[in-house]
Structure formats: C-alpha cells, structure tokens
Automatic annotation (TrEMBL):
It comes from Alicyclobacillus hesperidum. This is protein-glutamate O-methyltransferase. It comes from the Bacteria. The keyword Transcription does not apply. Pfam families: CheR, CheR_N. InterPro entries: Bact_Chemotaxis_MeTrfase, CheR_C, CheR_MeTrfase, CheR_N, CheR_N_sf, SAM-dependent_MTases_sf. The keyword Transferase applies. Residues 1-252 form the CheR-type methyltransferase domain. Its EC number is 2.1.1.80. GO terms for molecular function: protein-glutamate O-methyltransferase activity.
Length: 254
C-alpha cells in the first residue's frame, strides 16, 4: 500500500468519505498541494494534525471539489433546460445535487418563478460550510454577471457591493447535507441538476451515480449535467439525450 492509499483509508475512517471513488491523479495532486502548503511532509502527519485541528479538516473537505459557481452558469444551457421543462406541468419537484454555495438551485427557482411554475427544490452538498453560505443567499456581483438587470432587480436585494436572494426565492429551496456516494437518494423527482461534479469521479462511480439518478426520476423526468459532462460510454439506465447535457427518462412503454 502506498502512502496515498493509506491516506484514503485513514480519511474514510475519520470522515466516512471514500476517496477511492474519485479520480486519483487530480485528487492526489490537489490534496498533496494543500498538505504541503500547510507544512506537512507526509499524509500520516497531516491526518494526525487534522484530528486535533478541525479547521484543517474543513479546509480539506472544501478542497476536494472546487466550490466555484455563478448564477445561470452557461446561460445557453439554461435556455435549453427551460425549453425542456416547459411542458412538465405547473408543479415541479427538483433536486440540486452537490449544490455548492447555492447559485444553481436559486437559478432554478428563479427560472421556474419566471415560468409561473410552483417548485419544491431540495439542494444538497457534502460540505456544511458551503451549505451555510447557500442558506444566507449572499453573493458578490461577479457571481451575478449572467443575471440581467430585470431579474437582478426582481429577485435580489442589493447589500453594499453585493446582493442577497429575496426571501420568496430562498423559501423555495431546502438545503441539506448529503453524500452522493453513500446516502439514500430522493425519489419521484421531475428534475435533477448535478453539474460539474461527475468529472471528479471514476468511470465506475460515475456509472453508479447515473443509475441512481435515473432511478430517482419519474418517467419523463430530466437530468441536467454540466457542460463538461457528456455521459459518453455509460449505460444511461433508461435516460435518453434530449438537448446537449440534458437527459430525459423514458416514459413507460418507450
């Protein structure tokens, strides 16, 4: 067993998170760089320090993924999503998986409000710190660069140089901690958004997640993934491509 394999086992024991599901080269490179910057020469000493310094563990959890997002990221994809959900009815149950700091579930809530569609949105992430930020709904101006002036005025309060999502949008979204690799998935969903997350996982794990997403959707439900995440080479478990990066679960009998 090499040192990083030892670290994967130690980290699983410490947190319950199994890093073996993630692509090793990029994860090892990212975490080794963080470890070195904190002044530890090997992973055993780093793990020992994390046991006594929770802030080190919190930092590492944050570093596992890049928690950088913005409202309506890749706006042309959101226009495609709007076209797909247009005929789904006047009430939608949605899940924003690995939601980071909340821009995507709030973007969805705004999109559906503009369509006069009632929405219940569950937004989840493994990182409690980003969930706390998401619940506050406070963002800097650069995170709203794809939000036009009309939407910004209607759905945000200006706070100094930043903005806060208005209460009527924040109330649509329920934030909860969730581990995509081990926790139960919600069911009977109309829409799942999971963008720019699958790229971190091994092909085997990615296949497992796609299968579980498909099982969570009702027939006709939609999976919306990131613009780097075509599901090429995977068994789609009853999902069919609809528009780029958007997949629809087959209806019964299709």
């Amino acid at each position: 067993m090499d040192e990083f394999e030892w670290f994967v086992n130690a980290f699983r024991a410490l947190t319950g998170i199994d890093l073996s599901h993630y692509k090793r080269p990029q994860m090892e490179r990212r975490l080794t760089s963080l470890r070195d910057r904190r002044g530890y020469s090997d992973f055993p000493s780093y793990v020992q320090a994390m046991r006594g310094k929770p802030e080190l563990l919190d930092e590492l959890l944050d570093r596992m993924t890049i928690n950088v997002s913005e409202f309506f990221r890749n706006p042309e994809r959101w226009k495609d999503l709007q076209a797909v959900v247009q005929g789904m009815g006047q009430s939608i149950q949605a899940w924003s998986a690995a939601c980071s700091t909340g821009e995507e579930p709030y973007s969805l809530a705004i999109l559906l409000a503009e369509m006069n569609v009632r929405a219940t949105i569950l937004a989840t992430d493994i990182d409690l710190r980003v969930l706390d930020k998401a619940r506050r709904g406070e963002y800097v101006q650069t995170q709203l660069r794809e939000v036009d002036d009309r939407l910004r005025h209607r759905y945000f309060h200006q706070q100094g140089s930043g903005y806060r999502v208005r209460d009527e949008i924040r109330q649509v979204v329920q934030f909860r901690q969730h581990n995509l690799l081990s926790d139960p998935y919600p069911t009977d969903l109309d829409l799942i958004i999971c963008r720019n997350v699958l790229i971190y996982f091994t092909e085997e794990t990615k296949q497992q997640l796609v299968r579980r997403f498909a099982a969570s959707l009702r027939p006709g439900g939609v999976l919306f993934v990131g613009s780097t995440e075509q599901l090429l080479g995977l068994s789609l478990s009853g999902l069919r491509p609809s528009k780029p990066f958007i997949y629809v679960k087959a209806e019964a009998g299709e």
